[in-house]
């Protein structure tokens, strides 16, 4: 494990920690912070179109990015965990918009692995991208389903013109997926798309999840 860094560095530059210890080359596209970040106010800047992946401990509802991703259930009508927190922070307008989707294009709900965008309403983020993670307790154990949540969310972000996006650790909560596997699948899914966005951020609500993402980057 290596010390936290708040600097986002292009792949062709050296990334060093505060102690000047060189981070191995394979980690340079991913930066970490174990200091809780509750908003994007102190987020790094990205001169010249620099892009990268950032993993932080924080509250996804307060992120000042173009879009945040909601770990939704297929009903789109709110629930517990991240889903409930996002609906509460966004206010009743988000639920109203989700109900309209259920009454039109998503009458049967949002399938596992798919993603759909709505407005952010009272959130700092302009959009919310809803995705339904696989539930291991129901036998949904295919990593490809989990990877689809991240790749389809990036597709939805590109469609609406979002350049900065924040993800939670989809399926790492009550859906029963191991944090280490979620981290490995998530980073593997977004790395090929890193140049398409100014920032792909993973917002983890605990040190346990953040450490899982650090270990996944080290093992990549």
Automatic annotation (TrEMBL):
Top-rank taxon of the source lineage equals Bacteria
Q: Which residues form the Macro domain?
A: 40-220
* InterPro entries, sorted: Macro_dom, Macro_dom-like
Q: Which PROSITE patterns match?
A: MACRO (PS51154)
Query: Where does the record locate the signal sequence feature?
Result: none
Q: Which Pfam families match?
A: Macro (PF01661)
Q: Which SUPFAM superfamilies does this chain map to?
A: Macro domain-like (SSF52949)
- Supply the NCBIfam families for this chain: PRK00431.1-6 (NF001664)
Quote the protein name from its UniProt record: O-acetyl-ADP-ribose deacetylase
